[in-house]
Design goal:
- By secondary structure, the protein is an alpha/beta fold.
- The chain has two domains: 119 residues, NAD(P)-binding Rossmann-like Domain (Rossmann fold); 191 residues, NAD(P)-binding Rossmann-like Domain (Rossmann fold, 3-Layer(aba) Sandwich), CATH 3.40.50.
- Helix content is 37%, strand content 15%.
- The strands form two sheets. A seven-stranded parallel sheet has the order 8-7-6-9-10-11-12, sandwiched between helices.
- Helix 1 links the parallel strand 1 and strand 2.
- Helix 1 crosses helix 12.
- The longest helix has 21 residues.
- It is globular and about 60 Å long.
- The chain starts with a strand and ends in a 10-residue tail after the last helix.
- The structure holds 1,4-dihydronicotinamide adenine dinucleotide.
- The site of 1,4-dihydronicotinamide adenine dinucleotide has 29 residues, from helix 4 and helix 6.
């Protein structure tokens, strides 16, 4: 098949070319897919896209009229695709349901540890010959309560790691996982989780129903000084409300790998430009906030698995007209 690969970075080329070995024609395009760049897909059977490509109804219309029949997502989340429009247009949408839940869960724990022990500040201090410990006081994870929102593949691994640190693990998920229950994870209502947890970490997908799940109300229910981690999707947080909670001290630590407006920022080197997003730049001013640019997935193992499953989805679609990893309208 002829596949237009959007938002393509050097590391995407390397992992996809290795797995593809010449089977499909992969044409790499650096820009995000949106209505302005959709014509690049002309003459292709499929597009291969990532988290910040926008596949709304207008873009899917343009792709369909150019003959595209498959959207091969090289990620797990599909909140950036209008699935109803895809179905109406007869476009199959396939994703990579799991490539390394460990990668994202481990990054989540890296954020927790770095924030708690203030590694970002300690690193800079020691480089400048400042060995003072004031301001670096952390807490033992052992004995603390961690609340996990969404115990699917990633949340379940995060639960296991945090349980290993000696945390009491609470969870909220409409579909509890047996593996978590067996570990001793206690499923509770969201409000109870918010009120009882020292650390709250989000691992549910973004849907229209849970947009701004963590808003001013939810923040108010949290413990004073709680730590909040979001490695899932930016839209789960009302960032303005989160900033207010940081300013008041209600929120003691914030770790983000995702951001509501990240498509304008992440995955690009903008170090020589002026950031125009005042909300994002305000977040950067807090000493108790660590932001990484959507790198939770970024391990060798995960890139290899992403390339393998995506190419398998394309090959299966070519052979059968469908994919085992197709996503439908919920
Ligand atoms: P999954 O589908 O295995 O699990 C999601 C879980 O969330 C399910 O158990 C589901 O029942 C639960 N859930 C759905 N709505 C919920 C709600 N409103 N409240 C509580 N639980 C809810 O998904 P997986 O693989 O664990 O990924 C989770 C999310 O992580 C993805 O949707 C994606 O947004 C994000 N992600 C982030 C990456 C990164 O690089 N930072 C990489 C991969 C995924």
């Amino acid at each position: 098949m002829k596949v237009a690969v959007f938002s393509a970075k050097q590391y995407d080329r390397a992992s996809f070319d290795k797995v593809n070995a010449g089977r499909h024609q992969l044409d790499y395009f650096e820009p995000h897919l949106d209505s302005a760049t959709a014509p690049l897909a002309h003459g292709h059977d499929a597009v291969c896209v990532f988290v910040n490509d926008r596949l709304d109804s207008a873009v899917l219309d343009a792709l369909a009229s150019d003959g595209v029949r498959l959207v091969a997502l090289r990620c797990a989340g599909f909140n950036n695709v209008d699935l109803a429009a895809a179905r109406r247009l007869g476009i199959t949408v396939a994703r990579v349901p799991a490539y390394s839940p460990h990668a994202v869960a481990e990054h989540t724990v890296a954020l927790i540890l770095a924030l708690n022990r203030k590694l970002h500040r300690a690193y800079n201090r020691v480089r400048e010959g400042n060995f003072a410990l004031e301001g670096l006081l952390g807490f033992d994870l052992n004995g603390r309560t961690a609340g996990i929102v969404g115990t699917g593949k990633i949340g379940a691994v995060a639960a296991r790691i945090l349980h290993g640190f000696g945390c009491t693990v609470l969870a909220f998920d409409p579909y509890p996982a047996e593996s978590c229950r067996a570990l001793g994870v206690r499923y509770v209502a969201l409000d109870e989780l918010l009120g009882a947890s020292d650390i709250i970490t989000l691992h549910c997908p973004l849907t229209p129903e849970n947009h701004h799940l963590i808003n001013a109300d939810a923040l108010e229910k949290m413990k004073q000084g709680a730590m909040l981690i979001n490695t899932s999707r930016g839209g789960l947080l009302d960032t303005r409300a989160v900033i207010a909670a940081l300013k008041s001290g209600k929120l003691g630590h914030l770790g983000l790998d995702v951001y509501e407006e990240e498509s304008e920022l992440f995955f690009e080197d903008l170090s020589g430009t002026i950031l125009r997003d005042d909300i994002f730049t305000r977040l950067l001013t807090f000493p108790n906030v660590i932001i990484t640019g959507h790198q939770g997935f970024f391990t060798r193992e995960a890139l290899d698995n992403i390339a393998r499953t995506t190419m398998e989805n394309i090959t299966q679609f070519e052979a059968t007209g469908s994919s085992p990893n197709a996503v439908g309208v919920s």
